[in-house]
Amino acid sequence: MENEVTIRIGGESGEGTISGGDILALASARWGYHVYTFRTFPAEILGGPCMFQVRISDHPVKSMGDYADVLICLNKEAYDRNVGELRHGGVLMYDPSDFTPEAGDYITYAVPFNEIARKEVQLFQTKNMVMLGAICGLFGPPLEAIIQVVQSKLSRSRKANATLMEKNLLALDVAKKYVSEKITKSDPYLLGPVEKADRVVLNGNQAIVAGALAAQCRYFAGYPITPASDIMEGMAKELPQVGGTFLQAEDEIAALASVLGASFGGVRAMTATSGPGFSLMTELIGLSSMAELPAVIVDAQRAGPSTGMPTKMEQSDLSFALNAGHGDTPRIVMAPSNVANCYELIIQAFEMAERYQMPVLFLSDQSLTARVESVDSHVFKKPEVHGRIQYNGKHASNGSNGHQAEPMLVGAGAAAHEYERYANTPTGISPISTPGSGAPAYVATGLEHDEAGHPNYEPEDHTEMMQKRFRKLATAAAEMPKPQRYGDADATVGIIGWGSTEGTIQEAVDRARAKGLKVASLHPTILSPLPDEAIQEFISSVEKVIVPENNYSGQLANLLGAKYGLQAVRLNKYGGIPFTAAEILRAIEEVH
Questions:
Q1: pTM over 0.70
Q2: Are 538 and 522 in contact (CB under 8 A)?
Q3: Where does the Pyruvate flavodoxin/ferredoxin oxidoreductase pyrimidine binding domain start and stop, copy by copy (predicted)?
């Protein structure tokens, strides 16, 4: 198929499998193609098998693809582990000195990666460059695109020198010449010239960092944990350049405590972690909710429980995110659907945290953190940033946030001049002050308190304050954007998903509609508070609803069943690998 190909590279950690795949994806995107990647790698530092898959096309792609069109095996184990994912009639490229593949329904190209690297380039570490040169010679993109990326990466490397640069470029050239002279191409896959476009190439974690900075986050505290560490490293690098502050805390508990301290001081603040670290933050999520302090907490989900599989994906933290904490603890829960949405939604997360003065839990996952996509540059426009509703002595100022200011409501028995930090307003949102010269003081406590912040344990006060805190969720539900239906207005089968499955679901919907089936999908990115009206309308408009989830227990399906009485058709996958569009299409066809 001209101008679209899905290439999977299998090898050992240390062979340049992942770095080679990254170079291929970046070069293809810079040349003008759309790209979508997926990777797996070992959790242990001692290494192990890894895989990189990139789907390259001249039109937008929404999933990693059902199968590999081209499988490149850098060793025998890679062949054994991945040949089952090669499509019928696809291409297998392998090193004949390492193994001989079994006969199968695929085209084989033998390329001596090891020999070229050792004998002709005289540097075995260029094996992945040999692989890239062979890819260019047989499938594209042009070698110049790869060279540009290699030169850019090596010029930034402290370990690089002129000799290393020369060896890498030689490996690319020799391998391309080898396949052009020794191999007769008999497959249909070729990336020809395309019109270049103004796109940005980045992964989910990089998009989160960019969005947080655009949202004027100026404080980050965290502790390293896979797959969220890239967010911490990105913020550590970028925050000082915009006058912000970074802290690597001693653990996740200290990280969130520090974030809440910064938030109390009036600074937009966040942390990022994964499941085990998220568990440790539970008590402080409650403090954020009770003290009504804004905080953004990214949970880059990985397969669990416990340490689980740190480098594999799962969507299994939803129930915990919705309910973590003792007592009734209002919070907002959001889940991005793709790389562009990571940027847009983290900005919205900060806006909602500041507006509603509560913790916002942001559920990414391992596949999305490392997924590279080419995103149109217009997505990264400068956002309009709104301030907190501030107390100015008599009433709330709107802080240039575009929301209507609310009058202060003075509680019974309170001094007229006393600052009521937790004033029981119609929306539940109370004006906040920031410590400093002339600002009214208040105590941000985890104890139940009255409107002025004084500890109060009376049943009437607890009832009033609990209702006030949860009223903010009702306000948020009324103000937040509604999810849009995708597909047929008269669909008989509906799909409700969340998180990183959106593109795969939409591709399955497109394929089903092309077969004449009536299908639609709904993909809310805000999961607490749920968009009740949109979901109820969607459920009532179809005969059956499928809920695909990368978890065992069907956590979204459980939530929809409890709240709306939905008896969903559950489609669960929990091996650590994302859905393919073909898997969801089969489910559609089975229930239609």
A1: yes
A2: yes
A3: 211-467
